What we know:
Layout: H1 9-17, E1 26-31, H2 42-54, E2 59-63, H3 73-76, H4 88-95, E3 100-101, E4 109-113, H5 116-120, H6 143-150, E5 153-157, H7 166-179
Parallel strand pairs: 1-2, 1-5
Antiparallel strand pairs: 2-4, 3-4
Helix pairs in contact: 1-2, 2-4
Amino acid sequence: MTPLHTINRNDIVNSLTGMSDQIPTAILIHSSLSSIGFVDGGADTVIDGFLDYLGANGTLIMPTICRRDGEKRFDSWHIKNSPSDVGIITEVFRCRHGVLRSDHATHSVAACGSKAYFFTSGHNTAYGRPGPWGEAAFGHNSPWEKMYLDDIHVFFLGVTLKVNTLGHFAQSLMVKTLLNQ
């Protein structure tokens, strides 16, 4: 029986480097650590690999969505203390020094890098797109709109397209368009 390969930081950087000739300026990652095999160093290794790949001018973004507490999550939300419910990689990333988080109870994002402030600021004052999570979740000036307009790259690590939160952003655009007709 062949032993399983242990994934390390260099494996991640080399895999990313082999995918494209040009390094993107920003990457949004949807991830599942348990789906990619054994990673030496766990979530930190994955995060460090992506940060190494992006370099000093890049920005790494992850959803830090809160699903707990149902409708009460707007009352219990705390930007620093509410955990991410979408995987261990996102939670470890959220808790890292230098990572910023957007201020929204259901669809926050965390970011690190040169444009982290740009992507995370203003979420609590986003407006204009009604939806089940309020008009700020995917509204004007939300991180999701900023990512769309900035043409970021979306990376799926051990997950399928079903978890693509930018799909909810697209739905909110469609609903707003239909309501305006």
